[in-house]
Amino acid sequence: MLVAISISPSGAPFEGAAAADGGVSDAVAAAVQVVRDSGLPHELNAMFTNIEGEWDEVMAVVKQCVDVVAARYPRVGLVLKADVRPGYDGQLAAKVERVQERLS
To answer: Which is the most buried residue in 27, 33, 96, 98, by most CB within 10 A?
Structure first.
C-alpha cells in the first residue's frame, strides 16, 4: 500500500515546543524522523510524505507521527490518501516511472 500523509499542528504549542521563528517545522520534522526511523520506503516532498508498506506497519507509523506532533501541540490535522493494492511492492517509484515513460 502507498500512503500520502500531511500532518498540520495547530493551536498554541506546549511549553518549549515552538520553533524559535514560531513555525511548525520542528514538529513536522519530528514526524518525518519517525517515518525515516521506520525503515519503510518513503519520500518527502513540499506537501506530503509518501510511505510504502503493509497496512498494519504503515498505519502504525502514521499513528506514531501523529503522537509525536500531539506531544508538542494540542491539535493535529491529518490528511491521508491511500492506494491499497495488495500484492504490489515498489510502487513508490514504479507509478512515477510509468508516467515518465509516457512523457518521453
So the answer is: 27
